[in-house]
């Protein structure tokens, strides 16, 4: 054991407090269930069992949270088993003296399963409880599926496990998951001791959860048949497994349920879906680590934020800061535009209140953080100013020129451009080291991804500050270098290109979207035509026009002509009621005008229509160029790691996490196979404009029989 390794007694302490035994888990920062913690729990239980003078046991955690779950790295080991932990939980549950659990912070996964095995539960007001295992493609593996439906109704238990969402202390109390909310005591230890004393004085005895009847009153007869059929549609096998295990809890014994849960847990853990989802989980954490930037890098203080432009993005960006209580100034050019932006923000909060997502006081407090202005001078004392004006290089440069002069020394200047040259924008400011790209995704207050674009001159403390800021905003940052469209939009460009060629060749928008949305094939949240209709065809077309001005388009007159034609026709997607589809109210219908446009354009560019295009071809034609572009992005070091690309696509573009992101999927397909299919399309479709030229890096890796994992390791400097 080296000196940094902790002993079980370092992370779990047992002490007698008068007549109570207290187990305190103290393994900062998150009290994760490592091997040491599990061994420490076993030792603590031994000590409690030895001391018969103690009347009861209190289990709680030190630090800012209760146990947030197991050590996910352990799941990768072939021999992994939850048996040792489950054994401890069984011992805890079968104590003949009452076992109390005091909760605070996040009580997640194995942490909640620990709480479920205790006899009584109290929680501080700030507590959140959940079983998020489904998010990494598994089910709760420490009897969560059997104990939860003994404390809360079986239907609620299933919903909680299928959604993976945590609930707050109030909801937990209402459902029966906890026995009391403690609004008085300052910490979990105090709370647990007082709770235990109060319960003991009322004569509380041991109450093993497994001995409680399952709460299944009023379940419709066909409940499980329907639920299983629904879960069957999920691409993640854990969904069905959860329903199955709860069904056994309802219909059979605890022991049978235990066996089934163990079996299903192991199958799910080994499934390709769970492996991919765990990859995304770790990739998100790794993405926050930027070479050259560490704990020692200074960070700038952000107390006041400025946002320029109160349009779609500006309003959404402002809400991010208002949500965490940071004073925010929103700048517009004209009063009516400012009023419109402010009204949109108010409407979003009001709708949140109506839907019960936030209370009125919180909404009011957030709105109080916002100030609208028409005076650029009001940005002078902001610590970070983010511009979200129209996607026009000259406009952004002239604005940056003024911001460079107006904003205080040391303020960070950020651009939300989705495609333009961040270095050219930075240079205009006259203080390029203060400039960074902060590419939010629409809707900006909802989408988790934040691309942080590092300019040639961006200073390390600006990068460190903005990467950390993403965490405060609840977003996942991915650092990208400067190029057209950064990681995400650059890869989306060939994806949209092929979608449009398929339209010209006779596929319908519906066929294309359905093919990539089909969970068995791919499972994208939204196909390309729906996506552009939602984002605005005008936005897409203007980006193309801007790219053309800078000489960035291929010399192909048929390049994305559908999008450009729809733009000229004023058919800008959902906002105008017609785009690739027609919109009647909220309903989406086929748009006959689109097939007419495609037919005319196909004739004009001599593109043959009428052959049958299979769904398989659609998926390959959309995915292969996107993956190929991903390899180029790695080659050029625009993205630091393949995992970063996967995070961009899963967190920002609705790419299914159970496929691990495009680069992980390429790996799963096999790189030689990816290369072979690209070459197939090169032969069958032609390659006049280089659309099907494979990236050098892909060719190299495919020829070596290497995988993308090896590339990730070599990039991170691991031998
Ligand atoms: P928008 O057209 O909805 O809003 C732009 C706003 O900026 C307008 O209200 C305009 O009046 C205002 N504005 C223009 N010049 C200004 C100035 N000098 N001072 C103050 N306000 C000014 O556009 P949107 O969609 O919000 O896009 C803004 C930026 O965000 C663009 O660079 C775009 O590429 C980028 N972006 C857009 C996304 C989208 O899905 N719409 C996604 C990610 C980035």
From TrEMBL:
Q: Which organism is it from?
A: Paraburkholderia sprentiae WSM5005
InterPro entries xrefs: 3-OHacyl-CoA_DH_NAD-bd, 3HC_DH_C, 6-PGluconate_DH-like_C_sf, ClpP/crotonase-like_dom_sf, Enoyl-CoA_hydra/iso, NAD(P)-bd_dom_sf
Query: Which keywords fit this entry according to its UniProt record?
Result: Fatty acid metabolism, Isomerase, Lipid degradation, Lipid metabolism, Lyase, Multifunctional enzyme, NAD, Oxidoreductase, Peroxisome, Plasmid
Catalyses: a (3S)-3-hydroxyacyl-CoA + NAD(+) = a 3-oxoacyl-CoA + NADH + H(+)
Q: What is this protein called?
A: Enoyl-CoA hydratase/isomerase family protein
The subcellular localization recorded is: Peroxisome
What PANTHER family does the record tag this protein with? Answer: 3-HYDROXYACYL-COA DEHYDROGENASE-RELATED, 3-HYDROXYACYL-COA DEHYROGENASE
Pathway given for this chain reads: Lipid metabolism; fatty acid beta-oxidation
Superkingdom is Bacteria
| Residues of the 3-hydroxyacyl-CoA dehydrogenase NAD binding domain | 304-480
Occurrences of domain 3-hydroxyacyl-CoA dehydrogenase C-terminal (ranges): 485-583, 618-705
Q: Which GO terms describe its molecular function?
A: (3S)-3-hydroxyacyl-CoA dehydrogenase (NAD+) activity; enoyl-CoA hydratase activity; isomerase activity; NAD+ binding
A Pfam family hit = ECH_1
Q: Which GO terms describe its biological process?
A: fatty acid beta-oxidation
Keyword NAD in annotation: yes
């Amino acid at each position: 054991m080296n000196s940094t390794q902790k002993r079980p007694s370092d992370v779990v302490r047992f002490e007698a407090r008068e007549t109570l035994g207290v187990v305190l888990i103290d393994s900062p920062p998150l009290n994760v269930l490592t091997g040491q913690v599990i061994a420490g729990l076993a030792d603590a239980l031994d000590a409690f069992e030895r001391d018969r003078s103690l009347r009861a046991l209190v289990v709680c955690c030190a630090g800012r949270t209760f146990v947030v779950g197991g050590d996910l790295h352990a799941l990768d080991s072939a021999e992994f088993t939850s048996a040792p932990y489950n054994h401890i939980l069984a011992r805890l549950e079968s104590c003949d003296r009452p076992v109390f659990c005091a909760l605070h912070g996040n009580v997640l996964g194995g942490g909640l399963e620990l709480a479920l095995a205790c006899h009584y539960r109290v929680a501080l007001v700030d507590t959140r409880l959940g079983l998020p295992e489904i998010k990494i493609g598994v089910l709760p593996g420490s009897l969560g599926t059997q104990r939860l439906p003994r404390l809360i109704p079986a239907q609620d238990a299933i919903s909680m496990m299928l959604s993976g969402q945590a609930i707050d202390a109030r909801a937990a109390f209402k459902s029966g998951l906890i026995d009391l909310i403690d609004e008085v005591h300052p910490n979990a230890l105090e709370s647990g001791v007082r709770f235990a004393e109060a319960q003991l004085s009322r004569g509380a005895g041991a109450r093993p959860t497994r001995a409680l009847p399952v709460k299944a009153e009023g379940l419709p007869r066909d409940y499980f048949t329907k639920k299983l059929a629904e879960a069957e549609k999920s691409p993640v096998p854990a969904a069905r497994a959860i329903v199955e295990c709860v069904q056994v809890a309802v219909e059979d014994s605890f022991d049978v349920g235990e066996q089934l849960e163990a079996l299903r847990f192991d199958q799910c853990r080994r499934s390709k879906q769970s492996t991919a989802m765990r990859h995304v989980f770790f990739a998100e954490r790794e993405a926050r680590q930027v070479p050259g930037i560490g704990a020692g890098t200074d960070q700038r203080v952000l107390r006041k934020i400025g946002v320029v432009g109160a349009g779609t993005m500006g309003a959404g960006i402002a809400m991010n800061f208002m949500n965490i209580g940071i004073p925010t100034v929103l700048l517009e050019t004209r009063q009516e535009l400012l009023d419109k932006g402010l009204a949109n923000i108010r409407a979003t909060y009001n709708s949140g209140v109506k839907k019960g997502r936030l209370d009125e006081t919180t909404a009011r407090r957030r709105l109080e953080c916002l100030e609208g202005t028409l005076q650029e001078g009001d940005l002078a004392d902001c610590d970070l100013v983010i511009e979200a004006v129209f996607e026009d290089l000259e406009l952004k440069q002239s604005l940056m020129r003024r911001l460079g002069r107006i904003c205080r020394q040391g303020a960070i200047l950020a651009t939300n451009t989705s495609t333009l040259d961040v270095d050219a924008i930075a240079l205009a400011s006259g203080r390029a080291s203060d400039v960074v790209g902060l590419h939010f995704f629409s809707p900006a207050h909802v989408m988790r991804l934040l691309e942080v674009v590092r300019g040639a001159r961006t200073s390390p403390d600006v990068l460190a500050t903005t990467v950390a800021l993403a965490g405060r905003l609840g977003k996942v940052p991915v650092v990208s270098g400067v190029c057209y469209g950064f990681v995400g939009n650059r890869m989306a460009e060939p994806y949209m290109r092929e979608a449009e060629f398929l339209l010209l060749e006779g596929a319908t928008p519906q066929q294309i979207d359905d093919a990539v949305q089909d969970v068995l094939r791919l499972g994208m949240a939204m196909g390309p035509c729906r996506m552009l209709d939602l984002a605005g065809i005008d936005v897409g077309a203007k980006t193309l026009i801007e790219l053309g001005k800078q000489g960035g388009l291929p010399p192909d007159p048929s390049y994305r002509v559908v999008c450009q034609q729809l733009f000229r026709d004023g058919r800008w997607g959902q906002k105008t009621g017609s785009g690739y589809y027609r919109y009647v109210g909220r309903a989406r219908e086929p748009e006959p005008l689109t097939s007419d446009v495609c037919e005319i354009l196909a004739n004009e560019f001599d593109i043959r229509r009428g052959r049958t295009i299979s769904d398989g071809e659609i998926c390959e034609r959309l995915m292969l160029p996107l993956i190929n572009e991903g390899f180029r992005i790695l080659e050029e070091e625009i993205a630091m790691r393949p995992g970063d690309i996967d995070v961009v696509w899963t967190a920002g573009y609705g790419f299914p996490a159970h496929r691990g992101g495009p680069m992980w999927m390429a790996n799963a397909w096999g790189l030689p196979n990816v290369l072979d299919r690209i070459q197939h399309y090169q032969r069958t479709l032609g390659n006049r404009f280089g659309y099907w030229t494979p990236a050098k890096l892909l060719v190299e890796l495919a020829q070596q029989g290497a995988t993308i994992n090896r590339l990730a390791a070599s990039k991170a400097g691991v031998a």
